[in-house]
Amino acid sequence: xxxxxxxxxxxxxxxxxxxxxxxxxxxxxxxxxxxxxxxxxxxxxxxxxxxxxxxxxxxxxxxxxxxxxxxxxxxxxxxxxxxxxxxxxxxxxxxxxxxxxxxxxxxxxxxxxxxxxxxxxxxxxxxxxxxxxxxxxxxxxxxxxxxxxxxxxxxxxxxxxxxxxxxxxxxxxxxxxxxxxxxxxxxxxxxxxxxxxxxxxxxxxxxxxxxxxxxx
Length: 216
Description:
Largest sheet: 9 strands, mixed
Structural class: alpha/beta
CATH superfamily of the largest domain: P-loop containing nucleotide triphosphate hydrolases
CATH architecture of the largest domain: 3-Layer(aba) Sandwich
Radius of gyration: 17 Å
Shape: globular
Strand content: 25-35%
Number of strands: 9
């Protein structure tokens, strides 16, 4: 932690990004075309989408972490493109998981977390202030007060299996994102994962049919 803190403190204030990069297929779905520092984004499930959101910043040189996600292993992260030499894993933080996230926010740019319990708006606001100060973003598997955007994956369809034989080679699914600042849902058909194990776009983004529950 001291080594990470020293590296983070060595970066100039004006060098902190206004947004953190995301895979090209997701940029048009998010209100800032990336992850906004100080903001939280909720996902309905962990998996390829979460790893893709960690991979892009890590390839750009940012440190990332995952808290309370024991199913997220280094091998899967590496296959998804995450730079393992800039990845911190805390699979079992216990009841003090929020304190762990707050501490990591001092040194990491993107933190994924599966909350161990419900978070109060006051605690979420305090963490958001620390994230803004350090130029970091939060990816939450589950609910979070006043999240910047909600990402939902549905309508999955696997490929690669024939009539009772073969191997699964990819999963096509619809990703729908609803932002707190722009309540119009946007969606795209993606491969989660594709044959290479990573996120790939199948169809361009389009306004989602109907309206989703408002974020936050």
